[in-house]
TrEMBL record:
CDD domains: PAS. One of its GO terms (molecular function) is kinase activity. It is a multi-pass membrane protein. The chain crosses the membrane at residues 12-34, 176-194. InterPro entries: HATPase_C_sf, HATPase_dom, His_kinase_dom, PAS, PAS-like_dom_sf, PAS_fold, sCache_3, Sensor-like_sf. Its main location: membrane. Keywords: ATP-binding, Cell membrane, Kinase, Membrane, Nucleotide-binding, Phosphoprotein, Transferase, Transmembrane, Transmembrane helix, Two-component regulatory system. Residues 335-520 form the Histidine kinase domain. It is found in: Cell membrane. It catalyses: ATP + protein L-histidine = ADP + protein N-phospho-L-histidine. Its EC number is 2.7.13.3. This is histidine kinase.
Length: 532
């Protein structure tokens, strides 16, 4: 019958652990029995050697060997048998220098030549061995028999029954097996406990199921368009999918490192680390507006998901600008209607010269304002933004002025970034002030944007806090959150290697200054002269 390998993880672990435990115990038992057998053999041979030495030391044995003939009733046989019975030896054989037996357990063997080679003992050396003789297999020893002058007159051979040694070895096996069985039982119980715990941890799945789940998880994490970031209990990154690498501008080398080492200090790091609580938390990282949600895991870590809301935020701000322009156009529509009514009244009253002067005044005022912006700001997007914001300010009863020192004749590298910075600063000023002044300067390739207002100003203790994501003193609109405008401004400035700061305005209010290095492309002097 074919034995099938178990599929589930806990069953495989249990089977493997039991097999390993059994194999180890069998190996240990074998390693124990092998030296034990050798030790018992050694003990038996040394015992035989001691008996042989004791027999050879008997003082009357040499005299009887010289003065009598070998016979079953002789004194040598009697002395040898006495010692054999006293020591429990299998046999004691006394031989002369010719190898003829003078004593033996089997008296029929007396007077015959020994069955094994006696030359070593007769040559003066002692010998121990396990060998076969006329009485079967035995542990034996042979020693020379010397007279008082140390001359060799024969030899003594003593044998210990090997069966007794074998029986002693076999007698140790039951106890050894008992201990081995107890150790095996403990090992099996331990393996069963480990496998049950593993079963709970793996939910009874097989290795193939776990491997398939891992492959599916990797495919899912790296295919979704939402950033996923997993942290362990110590705040180290243990998983980072492709979208998270893109949004946070990290790579796979960040895996295994603490969050504080791979992200700069700020709101993003605070949100990801769980030090800011809430759902759909808004943060700005690397110039991107992100929505973060954090879910703790059972091991003390957490999984954070991030959604990119940069485009949506820009569209929301464009929507705000569009609403403002619509309001301004609606107000201008009323204003034009009033002017047309005024013009119609002047014509009906016959005051034609006054009507002409009124039309010329209105037309030149608008043309002068637009031409003034275009002369000082070369980029069309920035010029259009300033004209549009002027109309919105007028609708809100505020005044937006272009500083006489404004000069931005150079080509802007990325006008959208400057539009974002300038638009956010003007929008913030329109919410709190009635007088706003905008100044745009070019210092080489560096663009300096400065927006001042006559609002309540910013206390010194809050001048850093207002640039943090999510911080605002105003109520959030329905379609987007507050507290992102100034955060985006600072992130854009830092991305250019510049800075954004706020100071107090003389006479009250605030001055926001943004420095953007390398934001302009300086034109050659010849080109500037030709354009003029």
């Amino acid at each position: 019958m074919r034995i099938h390998w178990p599929r589930r993880v806990f069953a495989q672990v249990l089977f493997t652990q039991v097999a390993i435990t059994t194999g180890v115990i069998m190996l240990i038992t074998g390693l124990f029995l092998a030296p034990l057998s050798h030790q018992l053999d050694n003990q038996a041979m040394h015992q035989a050697l001691s008996i042989a030495q004791t027999t050879a030391a008997e003082p009357g044995l040499v005299r009887d060997l010289r003065s009598t003939d070998p016979s079953p009733g002789g004194p040598v046989q009697a002395e040898a048998e006495r010692i054999r019975r006293a020591t429990g030896a299998l046999y004691i054989v006394v031989m002369d220098t010719r190898g003829v037996r003078w004593s033996h357990t089997d008296t029929a063997q007396i007077g015959k030549h020994v069955s094994t080679d006696p030359s070593t003992a007769l040559g003066g050396r002692e010998i121990m061995q396990i060998d076969d003789g006329t009485l079967g297999r035995s542990a034996r020893a042979k020693v020379p028999l010397r007279d008082g002058r140390r001359h060799i007159v024969g030899a003594v051979s003593v044998g210990i029954a090997y069966d007794s040694v074998h029986d002693r070895l076999l007698g140790t096996i039951p106890g050894l097996l008992l201990y081995s069985g107890a150790a095996l039982a403990v090992g099996v119980l331990a393996a069963l406990a480990v496998s049950r715990r593993l079963q709970r941890g793996t939910h009874g799945l097989a290795f193939t199921d776990i491997s398939a789940l891992l492959d599916e998880r990797e495919a899912m994490l790296h295919s979704i368009r939402e950033a996923v970031l997993a942290l362990d209990a110590r705040g180290r990154i243990r998983l980072l999918n492709d979208e998270a690498q893109r949004l946070l501008e990290l790579d796979q080398q960040a895996v295994g490192r603490p969050l504080g080492e791979v992200l700069p200090p700020g709101r993003t790091a605070e949100v990801l680390a769980g030090r800011v609580y809430g759902a759909d938390l808004i943060t700005v990282c690397r110039g991107r507006v992100l929505i973060a949600n954090r879910m703790p895991t059972g091991d003390g870590g957490a999984v954070v998901t991030l959604r990119d809301r940069t485009e949506l935020e820009l569209l929301s701000r464009e929507l705000d600008s569009t609403h403002g322009l619509l309001d301004a156009l609606r107000a201008q529509d009323h204003e034009h209607a009033n002017r047309l009514h005024t013009l119609l009244g002047l014509l009906e009253l016959g005051r034609h010269e006054a009507a002409v002067e009124f039309v010329v005044e209105v037309t030149e005022g608008h043309r002068a304002s637009a031409e003034q912006v275009a002369e000082r700001v070369n980029d069309p997007l920035l010029s259009a933004l300033l004209v549009g914001k002027s109309a919105i300010a007028a609708e809100r009863g505020a005044s937006l002025r272009i500083s006489p020192g404004t000069r931005l004749p150079d080509v802007v590298v990325d006008p959208r970034d400057l539009v974002t910075v300038l638009g956010n600063l003007i929008d913030n000023a329109l919410d709190v002030a009635t007088l706003i002044e905008v100044e745009l300067l070019a210092e080489g390739s560096t663009a300096v944007l400065r927006v001042s207002d006559n609002g309540p100003g910013v206390p010194p203790t809050m001048r850093e806090q207002i640039f943090a994501e999510g911080w605002s003193t105003k109520e959030s609109p329905a379609h987007r959150g507050r507290g992102l405008g100034l955060a985006l401004v600072r992130r854009l400035a830092e991305r250019y290697g510049g800075a954004a700061r706020v100071t107090a305005r003389a006479g009250g209010g605030a001055v926001f200054t943004v420095v953007l290095p390398e934001a302009l492309t300086v034109r050659p002097l010849t080109e500037v002269g030709e354009s003029r």
